[in-house]
């Protein structure tokens, strides 16, 4: 028998190499090549020894495939059900990824309470002792009779137990602690993670049991061994958020049973994660009054419009080269917008430090936020507050023009719902808004100059009103 050779595989891109390198020759990542066992090469296409197998009788017409018994378990958490595409599908395997400490174990333990009403749930933990789980469950008020705990890390024995025990739902916390005896590498290595995931996948399909797998992400935001894991499982959910902020966003990165556009918003409280059904209200809570440099914009998170406040502080610099800093917004994009304002509107930021923040720890990474950022930059420079009931969205081009954006109707309706009275939108989007009546006053603008004059008109009317 030929000796099985060791190969080295990149944990980021899956590149295979016969010898170890500090840097992956394919994707350029450092220190990502890990020891692995090559896949068997026998029985590949063109092997003359192989007898042909006819599987014609297994070909099925699409119309004959029965989906009437497709079961979805509700989780009791609306935000989670939405991200899953309407609930947890029986026999599916879902990977819940996120940084350590973000709340993965908390969320999964919380949903056990609802599952436990009518299903048997097995919580397999390789990270915490049964006692620790019990203490956490108490804190989360999880006291269902149907929750069972197993604290082992041997993947094969777990699957054997599942075959005998047959729970309705299984949670594996976490895949990085699971191991298979036959594989010599340590738990959490690429080979262990891949083989254990494969084993759980086969078990989920064979026994028709849904399995949740918790996966920690490394510092770059990728699940350890991302390529090998993400394609095996049915759905990949990412739990995101700043650790020091209480908001958490659950995002579907892959979903074989639903859309990847949906997000769920949660808040971490003393007694676990709470759903935030109205994120716009949460984000706008506690807005400062009569302060220059703040404006609200509407961003799309998948198909969901969310209003977020942008704050800019342009202040006299004490440094030889003025500082620019952003949080939740692309740094280079802000520099470009400053350049546009300087070139086309004659404003001058050369001696000012500029700080930008998107409130609530959200990141605004779509061009639709440009207009509100430009308005904030202007407002902070001239030190005139923007009316708190004004919102703006549109992309700003290098010529200072305001360009069209997607989902304009949804954004306008969300702004209207949240009580805004004035909405500055790209002129080219007005056509799309025709046909309905809105309570909110809509101003279409072609360029930044027009947008600023809308702001000034707003301030003037307010001044005349107060007179
Ligand atoms: P955890 O679910 O253990 O994170 P993960 O499984 O993703 O590693 O979350 C732990 C954090 O959540 C911890 O820092 C404390 C915080 N937390 C609360 O704020 N409230 C709670 O009720 C619980 C259970 C945890
Ligand atoms: Mg955990």
Structure description:
The chain is of the alpha/beta class and about 475 residues long. It is built from twelve helices and 23 strands. The protein has a nine-stranded mixed beta sheet. The chain has a four-stranded mixed beta sheet with strand order 15-16-18-17. A three-stranded antiparallel beta sheet has the order 2-1-3, with no helix packed on it. Helix 4 (about 155-165) runs parallel beside helix 5 (about 190-205) and helix 8 (about 330-345) crosses helix 9 (about 370-380). The chain is elongated. The termini are far apart. Magnesium ion binds next to helix 2.
Briefly characterize the structure.
It contains twelve helices and 23 strands. By secondary structure, it is α/β, with parallel strands linked by helices.
Please tell me how large the radius of gyration is.
27 Å
Number of helices: 12
Bound molecules: thymidine-5'-diphosphate, magnesium ion
Low-confidence runs: none
Write the topology of this structure:
Layout (H helix, E strand, L loop, with lengths): L6 E4 L5 E2 L15 E4 L35 E2 L4 H7 L3 E2 L3 E6 L5 H12 L5 E5 L4 H10 L7 E4 L4 H11 L3 E5 L16 H18 L3 E6 L9 H5 L4 E6 L6 E9 L7 E7 L2 E4 L3 H6 L9 E8 L2 E13 L7 E4 L3 H15 L6 E7 L11 H13 L7 E3 L2 E2 L5 E2 L4 H10 L4 E5 L3 H4 L7 E5 L2 H19 L1
Parallel strand pairs: 6-10, 6-11, 7-8, 7-9, 9-10, 17-18, 19-22, 22-23
Antiparallel strand pairs: 1-2, 1-3, 4-5, 11-12, 12-13, 13-14, 15-16, 16-18, 20-21
Helix pairs in contact: 4-5, 8-9
The site of thymidine-5'-diphosphate has 15 residues, from helix 2 and helix 3.
């Amino acid at each position: 028998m030929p000796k099985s050779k060791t190969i080295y595989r990149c944990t980021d891109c899956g590149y295979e190499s016969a010898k170890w390198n500090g840097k992956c020759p394919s994707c350029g990542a450092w220190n990502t090549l890990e020891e692995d066992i090559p896949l068997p090469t026998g029985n590949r296409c063109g092997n003359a020894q192989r007898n042909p197998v006819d599987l014609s009788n297994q070909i099925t017409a699409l119309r004959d495939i029965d989906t009437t018994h497709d079961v979805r378990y509700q989780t009791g958490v609306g935000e989670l059900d939405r991200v899953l595409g309407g609930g947890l599908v029986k026999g599916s395997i879902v990977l819940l990824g996120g940084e350590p400490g973000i709340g993965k174990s908390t969320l999964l333990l919380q949903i056990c309470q609802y599952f436990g009403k009518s299903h048997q749930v097995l919580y397999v933990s390789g990270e915490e002792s049964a006692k620790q789980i019990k203490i956490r469950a108490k804190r989360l008020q999880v006291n269902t009779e149907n929750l069972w705990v197993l604290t082992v890390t041997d993947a094969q024995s777990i699957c054997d137990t599942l075959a005998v025990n047959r729970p309705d739902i299984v949670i594996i916390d976490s895949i990085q602690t699971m191991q298979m005896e036959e594989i010599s590498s340590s738990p959490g290595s690429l080979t262990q993670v891949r083989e254990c995931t494969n084993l759980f996948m086969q078990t989920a399909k064979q026994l028709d049991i849904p399995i949740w797998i918790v996966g920690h992400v490394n510092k770059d935001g990728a699940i350890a061994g991302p390529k090998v894991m993400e394609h095996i499982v049915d759905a990949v959910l990412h739990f995101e958020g700043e650790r020091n902020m209480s908001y958490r966003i659950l995002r579907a990165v892959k979903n074989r049973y639903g859309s990847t556009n949906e997000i769920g918003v949660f808040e971490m409280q003393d007694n676990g994660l709470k759903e935030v059904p109205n994120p716009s209200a949460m984000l706008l809570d506690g807005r400062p009054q009569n302060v220059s440099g703040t404006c609200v914009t509407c961003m799309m998170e998948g198909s969901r419009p969310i209003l977020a406040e942008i704050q800019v502080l342009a202040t006299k610099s004490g440094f030889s080269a003025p500082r620019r800093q952003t949080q939740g917004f692309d740094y280079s994009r802000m520099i470009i917008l400053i350049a546009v304002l300087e070139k086309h509107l004659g404003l001058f930021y050369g001696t000012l430090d500029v700080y930008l923040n998107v409130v609530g720890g959200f990141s605004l990474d779509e061009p639709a936020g440009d207009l509100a950022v430009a308005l904030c930059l202007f407002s902070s420079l001239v030190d005139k507050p923007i009316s708190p009931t004004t919102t703006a969205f549109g992309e700003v081009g290098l010529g200072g023009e305001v360009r069209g954006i997607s989902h304009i109707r949804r954004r306008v309706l969300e702004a209207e719902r949240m009580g805004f009275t004035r909405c500055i939108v790209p002129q080219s989007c007005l056509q799309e808004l025709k046909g309905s009546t809105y309570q909110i006053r809509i101003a279409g603008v072609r360029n930044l100059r027009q947008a600023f004059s809308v702001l000034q008109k707003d301030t003037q009317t307010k001044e005349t009103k107060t007179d």
